[in-house]
User: What shape does this take?
Amino acid sequence: MGTPILTTTELRDLYGFKIDPPQEDKFQNLIAVATSACSVYLQRDLGVSTFTEFFDGSSQAMVLSHQPVAEVTGVYIDSARLYATPTTDYRIDLDTGVLVLYERVPEGRDVVKVVYDAGFESVPESILYAVAMTVQHLATMQQADLAGVMSRTTDSGTVSIDQSIPPLAVQKLLGEYRRNLAR
Assistant: This one.
């Protein structure tokens, strides 16, 4: 599970949650679950993490798997991968993760090693809000004992209950940040 990106204090102060002291642990767990659910939906970590990737020597351009890229800490092309390529020998688009080497890359498998940090250095406000909305959804489902209940019949008819985690409204909010895995 990802590291929670909100605290119970932030839920109270920023989003108006009413959390009594005996509920602290419950809400900390809900925050962890909501953070993880949003991270899985987005197909990316919400904080900054370090990644190492290897690329075949078939192209001078490569797309790093995780974006946004915070920093490239090393590009290694030599066979022993002992010497970092100078930063003047490549360029990186931090938003898209496209790395272009200026020199010809030797043919072969896993010839290029790239070590980099990627993720959100500062999580966008709309993602924080999406996690808070997911916490609210989970708490409501738990309080109303609706986990696994798809619909309820009332005097005015049948009501559908959104079981999506994160809920559909949150998925809409997160859409612009979701990774597109198609290459």
Observations:
- The helical segments are 8-15, 24-42, 125-143, 168-174.
- The longest strand covers residues 69-76.
- The CA atoms of residues 79 and 111 lie 7 Å apart.
- Strands lie at 49-55, 61-63, 69-76, 90-93, 98-101, 112-118, 151-154, 157-160.
